[in-house]
UniProtKB/TrEMBL annotation:
It comes from Microbacterium sorbitolivorans. It catalyses: tRNA(Phe) + L-phenylalanine + ATP = L-phenylalanyl-tRNA(Phe) + AMP + diphosphate + H(+). GO terms for molecular function: ATP binding; magnesium ion binding; phenylalanine-tRNA ligase activity; tRNA binding. This is Phenylalanine--tRNA ligase beta subunit. Residues 40-156 form the TRNA-binding domain. Binds 2 magnesium ions per tetramer. The gene is pheT. Tetramer of two alpha and two beta subunits. Its EC number is 6.1.1.20. Residues 414-489 form the B5 domain. Its cofactor is Mg(2+).
């Protein structure tokens, strides 16, 4: 909201020495945000001059210039020679002259300069060059502005070019502040200055029995609310629309960000900014009959003031006459009845429309306007009569009209919210002690009617504050007006013994461990296609239950993900397309696993201002599908780049398995791998991940067809684990290992087993049989070929033995190893390879 200071002074006491910084400081203290200080950026000398004579001099470029003799007054050097290209003035005209040393907006410094064979000793200015409007077709002729000042008069003061304004940000809930009236009230609250309400001007009653035909026919209200609250019609006859807008009004409008469009329209805009109630004027001679306010018929047409023909919705609220629509209520008028230079009789409309209806119309037609901006934030429903009267008075005064005796009004029976405010509630909520007298004084200053009741106050809100709806908003006003700087900044003391939960700590350890090993964490949207959910969200590749979004952002991906892998595949594709070929990625996030046949999304009724009960919480959780957290990894390209003396190392299953082991170690549980089949993975290169006997995920190489479909090249390996289940299986056990200082004994063993026997099972048998002396077991070779019978394989394990109290002998280590071999022989028929 741009607030000219001279306009603000009309309604609130303000020192003439008050600067824009002073006004900013006051308005910021009551909750507004400072934007910028505004002015015309014109510095003198800029004076009134009179054209004595001129010579028209054609130029080689086909342009005619005028070599003018302009009298700027004896004090300013008398008659000066000035070059001017404008053609709209005559000898004897009084004009605005910028003398050497002046600076115009731009900045554009003025100096005497030689041009077109003459020395131009200044410049005759147009409205655009002075920042007073967009008119650049000719220079300002002061007679057209209704002015006849003395030659040499300071034009800066004459035209209001010394005006200043402050631009402050108004939040959407404070629509009353989109007016000089509202800003003056707020400045008075901040400074304690005396405020004069411009809406309290005396109004002239319309003569009885001479009404204007007005009908309200809203048969399709929005949210049960009718589109119009108050509607006032007044008339002014015999106006002279060709009269100029006075400079004081033109400069104030310009500072407020509104360009001058002619006297009649300028008056309606002026009153809108002053009082906050948008006004619309109709050419009475172009109206057909009276006015009816109604909803549009679907498909109905209206040409608005911007020249666009609009197809209307049946939710749009219209202003109509007997000819049809003449305005889009609260947004923009129609072209058929607009005011122009030929208008002689005016019908004035001042109304209060329902905010939601206007907001929907403005957005539906992509037609934001100064009027809709105010209506959708809430206009004082009781100010329409005062606003209409102010327009009448200005049109009589400035346009020479006569107030009409006809009019009409739809009266609005306003009833403010009645709110009970306990006396100690404000202090308890804000942390500042407010005594009862101060609270009542502040609430009355903002316009409330306050009555003391037992234990507090009964507060009735004013018509211009629809944002005051409960005791919390009243407390906000008390704190704001008393001074937000008085609210202490006290950090709460964290209770002892609190911190991350075990699950949170475990998830962080897993993420940190993966990042420490060189993987890059990514975040993908949780929205996927049905095909992606089917392929990656089930082992068999058959269609499974999935959650469809009611209003998907992307119709090609309308489902919530069952797996994190599609997001990693899409990320890998994006990176590969941009030249990043070596990828080690991981993501942690929720997946959505609805149960077949279940219905989700049912509403749970409970008091929103209170914590739900345990039963209600259980019902809420049952209304959404299970959402376990998973962790997934993807590898493509090389895991180690080519270096001198070392070839590049491609990322394969070993990289994915290492990442899986890293997750297990960080979570505190051992993860085993067993061979399996999965729809998205290469047959023979896929494994299921098992922890504590429970399947918790999978690892493997993407099937070549899947990689090709995703535009990925080379081998791509992935792994995905149910992190929540993994952490639950790990439990809260913390095992602290004793670090022995005695020397370890190392031995290898190669066992021949059937090819269908999993290496993990053989390893488990060795560990079980060898006992506590076995410190670690690692598979180092899987041989199949010459020297072995068909269907057999040789698994070589590197074993390390250590005792806590002594150095083991070779015999003790061998004995433990053979004990492990015995268990493997018993279970799988394993024997030591010769």
């Amino acid at each position: 909201m741009r607030v000219p200071l001279s306009w603000l002074r009309d309604f609130v006491e303000m020192s003439d020495e008050a600067t824009t910084d002073d006004v900013f400081a006051s308005l910021v203290s009551v909750g507004f945000e400072e934007e910028e200080a505004l002015g015309f950026d014109v510095t003198g000398p800029v004076v009134v001059g009179q054209v004595v004579s001129f010579d028209v001099e054609p130029q080689k470029n086909g342009k005619n210039i005028r070599w003018c003799q302009v009298d700027v007054g004896a004090a300013n050097g008398g008659v000066r020679g000035i070059i001017c290209g404008a053609q709209n003035f005559h000898p004897g005209d009084k004009v605005v002259v910028s003398l050497p040393g002046a600076v115009l907006p731009g900045p554009f410094p003025i100096s005497a300069r030689k041009t077109y064979g003459h020395t131009s000793d200044g410049m005759i200015a147009s409205a655009k060059e002075l920042g007073l409007g967009d008119d650049h077709d000719g220079i300002i002729r002061l007679v057209e502005w209704g002015l006849d000042p003395e030659v040499g008069t300071d034009a800066i003061a004459l035209l209001g070019l010394d005006g200043e304004a402050v631009d402050v940000n108004v939040t959407p809930d404070r629509g009353y502040a989109l007016s000089i009236r509202g800003m003056a009230r707020e400045y008075a609250l901040a400074t304690g200055a005396s405020f004069t309400d411009p809406a309290a001007r005396p109004a002239t009653e319309v003569a009885a029995g001479s009404g204007f035909a007005l009908a309200i026919d809203d048969q399709r209200p929005i949210r049960g609310n009718h589109g119009v609250k108050q509607f006032v019609v007044r008339t002014v006859n015999g106006v002279d629309a060709s009269r100029p807008t006075p400079p004081w009004m033109r400069s104030r409008l310009q500072l407020a960000g509104v360009r001058s469009l002619g006297l009649l329209i300028d008056i309606t805009n002026y009153v809108m900014i002053e009082l906050g109630n948008p006004i619309h004027g109709y050419d009475a001679d172009r109206l057909s009959g009276g006015i009816t306010v109604r909803r549009a018929d679907k498909g109905e047409k209206l040409t608005t003031l911007d020249g666009a023909e609009r197809t209307l919705s049946d939710e749009d609220l219209l202003i109509t006459d007997e000819s049809g629509p003449i305005g889009l209520a609260g947004v923009m008028g129609g072209a058929s009845t607009e005011l122009n230079d030929e208008t002689a009789n005016v019908v004035i409309e001042a109304a209060a429309f329902e905010s939601v209806s206007i907001a929907r119309t403005a957005r539906r037609h992509k037609l934001p306007s100064e009027a809709s901006k105010r209506f959708e934030r809430g206009v004082d429903p009781l100010i329409a009569h005062a606003a209409a009267q102010r327009v009448v008075d200005l049109m009589v005064e400035l346009a020479g009209g006569t107030a009409g005796s006809v009019g009409a009004e739809l009266e609005y029976a306003f009833q403010g919210e009645t709110i009970e405010l306990p006396e100690g509630f404000a202090g308890g909520l804000v942390g500042v002690e407010y005594d009862a007298v101060l609270q009542q004084e502040i609430l009355e200053k903002i316009g409330c009617t306050v009555t003391r009741i037992d234990g507090g106050f009964s507060v009735v809100t004013p018509s211009w504050r629809p944002d005051l709806t409960d005791k919390w908003t009243l407390v906000e006003e008390i704190a704001r007006v008393d001074g937000l700087d008085k609210v202490p900044s006290i950090l709460p003391t964290a209770p002892a013994g609190r911190g991350y939960t075990r699950e949170q700590s475990s998830r962080r350890r897993v993420a940190d461990a993966l990042a420490a090993t060189g993987l890059v964490e990514t975040i993908a949207f949780p929205f996927v296609s049905e095909a992606a959910n089917t392929l990656y969200g089930s082992a068999s590749g058959e269609k499974v239950a999935m959650v469809r979004l009611a209003n998907a952002l992307d119709q090609t991906a309308p489902f919530l993900r069952r797996s994190l892998v599609p997001g990693l595949v899409a990320t890998a594709h994006r990176n590969l397309a941009r030249g990043t070929t070596d990828l080690s990625l991981f993501e942690m996030g929720s997946v959505f696993l609805p149960e077949e046949g279940m219905t989700y999304g049912t509403d749970v009724n409970y008091a929103r201002a209170q914590r739900p009960t345990d039963a209600q919480l259980a019902e809420i959780h049952a209304s959404i599908p299970p959402q376990p957290r998973h962790v997934a990894m993807l590898f493509a390209g090389d895991i180690a780049s080519k270096q001198p003396g070392r070839a590049a190392e491609a990322a394969g299953l070993d990289a994915a398995l290492d990442a899986v082991r890293t997750v297990g170690e960080a979570a505190g549980i051992t993860i085993e791998v067993e061979q399996t089949k999965r729809a998205a993975l290469h047959p023979g290169r896929a494994g299921k991940l098992v922890a504590a006997g429970v399947e918790i995920g999978y690892v493997g190489e993407l099937h070549p067809d899947v990689s090709k479909e995703a535009d990925l090249f080379g081998r791509v390996t992935v792994a995905e684990l149910d992190l929540d289940r993994l952490i639950a299986l790990a439990g809260e056990r913390v095992t602290v290992a004793h670090l022995s200082t005695y020397t370890a004994a190392t031995q290898d063993v190669s066992l021949v087993v059937g090819q269908d026997v999993a290496a993990a099972e053989v390893r488990a048998a060795l560990v079980e049989g060898a006992g506590e002396l076995l410190e670690s077991t690692r598979l180092v070779d899987d041989y199949r070929g010459q020297g072995l019978e068909d269907g057999q394989k040789s698994l070589t394990f590197a074993l390390r033995f250590r005792a806590a109290d002594r150095t083991l002998t070779a015999a003790e280590a061998t004995e433990a190893k053979l004990a492990g071999v015995a268990v493997a022989e018993e279970r799988f028929g394993a024997h030591i390879r010769d």
